[in-house]
Design a protein that fits this description.
With about 230 residues, the chain is of the alpha+beta class. The protein has 6 helices and 14 strands. The longest helix is centred in the middle third of the chain and has 17 residues. The chain starts with a helix and ends with a strand.
């Protein structure tokens, strides 16, 4: 697959939401908000690091990753890539640090650039907002009947974040081939502290493809950049 010009322009925008899926030590997808991910060319990606996080550790040990990009006008694409190397100098390093957000920000500049070879990328798709509203209502009805709070896995602040109608949620799992699959699940909500409820409207087809007993992660974040990973 190749990144076409429309996708390159979409990923070049700084106002997008970017999510990177690495794999943790237990085999779960680890989802990180990384808005700096963008196309280097038609077959490669880059993203910049300005803070140390677990995803940067995991990508070195397990270099095959998934990614998703959501634009401000509610269009998204997803795909898979393989990490190849990183650098703290060079053309891309200079370009990242000359972005308007970072150009005069001496305490928060990018200090490392990661390079990835593209394996697969989807077409750009619109978020089906009408179906998402219906799905969110159905998910909340379902959550009322399937609440579970024995282990207290998700604290109250996380439950509240999941219940916000305007929060964004992204689900990732690994298929039978060990490849990351990621898609939006904005309709999802918390059902107590131990369970997440989500209807099959929309993305029912994608949800049915998740194998039984698969390890699944969901990243939930809002426009205040508050987030929780389950």
């Amino acid at each position: 697959d190749r990144i076409d010009q429309q996708a390159i322009e979409m990923m070049d925008c700084d106002s997008k939401v970017g999510v990177l899926a690495t794999q943790d030590e237990s085999g779960y997808p680890h989802l990180s908000f990384i808005s700096s991910i963008q196309a280097l060319n038609e077959s490669a990606l880059t993203f910049g690091q300005f803070s140390a996080g677990l995803s940067k550790q995991f990508i070195v040990d397990r270099p095959r990753v998934g990614f998703l990009v959501l634009s401000a006008d509610k269009r998204y694409l997803s795909g898979r890539a393989t990490y190849t190397h990183s650098a703290n100098t060079g053309k891309e390093y200079d370009l990242y640090n000359n972005k308007p957000l970072f150009r005069y920000n001496s305490y928060m500049g990018f200090y490392r650039i990661f390079y990835l070879n593209l394996e697969q990328i989807s077409p750009i798709r619109p978020l089906p907002m009408g179906a998402i509203v219906v799905g969110a209502i159905l998910s909340r009805i379902k959550a009322f009947f399937v609440k579970k709070s024995e282990k207290k896995a998700l604290p109250l602040v996380g439950q509240q974040l999941f219940s916000q109608l305007d929060s964004l949620k992204f689900l990732c799992y690994y298929d039978e081939k060990g490849e990351a699959r990621m898609f939006p699940v904005v309709q999802a909500t918390s059902a107590g502290s131990d369970r997440i409820a989500l209807s099959g409207i929309p993305f029912g087809k994608e949800l049915r493809h998740i194998p039984d007993d698969a390890k699944v992660s969901i990243l939930c974040l809002n426009l205040k950049m508050e987030s929780v990973l389950v």
